[in-house]
Amino acid sequence: MPRPATDPIKAAQIKVLRQQAGRWLKAAREAAGLTQAELAEKVGLRYYTFVSQVESGLGRLPIETQAAWAQALGLDPSEFAKTLLRYYEPELFRLLFEAEAAQGRATA
User: Fold this and answer.
1) Which residue, 2, 8, 27, 42, is the most exposed by fewest CB within 10 angstroms?
2) Cα dist. 65→25, 53, 77 in Å?
3) Which region holds residue 62: left if phi is over 0, alpha if psi is between -120 and 50, else beta?
4) pLDDT band, residue 106 (cuts 50/70/90)
5) What confidence score (pLDDT) does residue 39 get?
6) More confident of the two residues 7 and 30
7) Residue 38, C-beta contacts closer than 8 angstroms, at least 6 positions apart
8) Residue-wise DSSP of 12-64
9) CA 108, CA 90: separation in Å to the nearest integer?
10) For residue 76, what is the enclosing H or E element?
11) pLDDT of residue 6
């Protein structure tokens, strides 16, 4: 079955979310006092340009590398992955955590 063409509105939303994720990652890197090259070395990347691509929203972190990035940035891996999920897969994030967020609002 042929794959449907990408919806331009959805593609624009994905681009914006990836850029937001990139800004969040850049802020985390800067808060950790690391350059792109230093972070790349800590997570085992051969080239720092991948860090640059992710920070600009052109790429995204593979799931299997997120724990290493979190550790390199001094962040909790679970919260790190949860934050990236919010940007990379907002519908899945909503399905997994909507009840948790609603419960938190109800008790506040």
Assistant:
1) 2
2) 14, 15, 10
3) beta
4) low
5) 98
6) 30
7) none
8) HHHHHHHHHHHHHHHHHHHHTT--HHHHHHHTT-S-THHHHHHHTTS----GG
9) 24
10) none
11) 73
The answer to whether the beta carbons of residues 79 and 10 sit under 8 Å apart is: no
All residues at 6 or more sequence positions from 61 whose CB lies less than 8 Å from its CB, including other chains: 25, 54, 69, 84
Residues 6+ apart with CB under 8 A from 53: 59
In the predicted model, is pLDDT for residue 105 greater than 90? no
pLDDT score at 98:
85
Quick: pLDDT tens for 51-101: 999 999 999 999 999 999 999 999 999 999 999 999 999 999 999 998 776
Q: Cβ neighbours of residue 106 under 8 Å, at least 6 residues apart? A: none
Burial grade of 33 (CB within 10 A; 0-12, 13-18, 19 or more) = exposed
Name residue, tokens 């919260």. Answer: 79
